Amino acid sequence: MTDARPIPTFDDDGPERKLCIICSKGSLDMAYPGLVLANAALGEGIETHLFFTFWGFEIINKKTMGNLQFSPVGNPATHMPTALAGLPGMQGMATRMMRKQIEALDVPPVPEFLTLIKEAGGHLWACRMSFDMMKLSEADLFEGVEGVIGATEFMELSEGAQTIFV
Predict the structure, then answer these.
(1) Quick one: residue 121, left, alpha or beta (phi over 0 = left, psi -120 to 50 = alpha)?
(2) What are the domain boundaries of the chain?
(3) Do β-strands 145-149 and 123-127 pair in parallel, antiparallel, or remain unpaired?
(4) What is the pTM of this model?
């Protein structure tokens, strides 16, 4: 690409910025995009909300958040033949490799990353429908989750925000 465009800048005279990220997947490789985006937004002073729904609950469930897995099966980005990706032990090996790469970049594990986001002023919300479907209690959730809210409440919360679905 020869025609590089300048990165837009924002000044303090514009409206307050708000970002809402819907985290719907709970695998190791799908947890980090939402967390990294939230961290970047908070670093820029943007009001940030993460809404965890369906399998995204794996990220905020105390029992699972520290042991998220990466599955190479059916993932064309791994460039691994499906027959090889499905062999016993491949998911564990792929998960260990991904964790090492994440650690080498000095990116914290998921529970620590959630704590950093909360400490930076980020807001964490759990989806009411998913919460009820999974028969969870608030004691099952990461301590930084502010509440369990429904879709209507999320619509109110996200009004005027840039919303990203991960």
Answers:
(1) left
(2) 18-68+112-165
(3) parallel
(4) 0.84
DSSP calls for 62-129: TTTTTS-----TT-GGG---HHHHTSTTHHHHHHHHHHHHHHHTTPPPHHHHHHHHHHTT-EEEEEHH
Residue with the two structure tokens 């699972």: 64
Q: What's phi and psi for 165, nearest 5 deg?
A: -105, 120
For the stretch 22-81, pLDDT in tens is 999 999 999 999 999 999 999 999 999 999 999 999 999 999 999 999 886 766 677 677
Fold of 18-68+112-165: Hypothetical Protein Ychn; Chain: A, (3.40.1260)
> Pseudo-torsion of CA 131, 134, 136, 138, nearest 10°?
-20
Q: Rounded to 10 degrees, what is the CA torsion of 61, 52, 148, 46? A: 120
Q: Give all strands of the β-sheet with 18-23 in edge-to-edge order.
A: 145-149, 123-127, 47-52, 18-23, 162-165
Q: Could you identify the residue written with the tokens 């209690």? A: 137
CA–CA distance, 103 with 106 (Å, rounded to integer): 5
